């Protein structure tokens, strides 16, 4: 008897049209886009929550680490865009390309030197900030790449 009931339920499901999203060629999958955004949000949120909860850090020190994060995110996205533009034949001046590289290198040096010289932070917290910073930078580049790939795939049509 239960088999008849299950058959009726399954039969009703067959009539429902399934909505399928057709992905354009070259467009990242929804799962990859979601994972990239999640990584960015997790990295930035963890970094900021860590700064907020740092009781031994002075406000100016928290501001320094916040500014370095924002500078790092911006410089990474800017460099990724410059590299991508150059690869696609879009003109990029050498000075902008060089400044983009220098800005990213400086942001990484600022976080590394800041954490190395931070006497009020224990080693495990230094590692936490470094890993949250790296995760955020990598995720920002990936999100920017996904946005660019999606835009390019939709423009082909």
TrEMBL record:
Biological processes annotated in GO: DNA damage response
Highest taxon in the source lineage: Bacteria
InterPro entries xrefs: YiaA-like, YiaAB
GO cellular component terms, semicolon-separated: plasma membrane
Keywords of this entry: Membrane, Transmembrane, Transmembrane helix
Domain YiaAB two helix span(s) in chain numbering: 32-85, 96-149
Tagged with keyword RNA-binding: no
Pfam families, alphabetized: YiaAB
Membrane-crossing segments per the record: 30-52, 64-83, 95-116, 128-147
PANTHER family associated with the record: INNER MEMBRANE PROTEIN YIAA (PTHR37290:SF1), INNER MEMBRANE PROTEIN YIAA-RELATED (PTHR37290)
NCBIfam families registered for this protein in UniProt: PRK11383.1 (NF008482)
Protein name: YiaAB two helix domain-containing protein
Species name: Oceanobacillus chungangensis
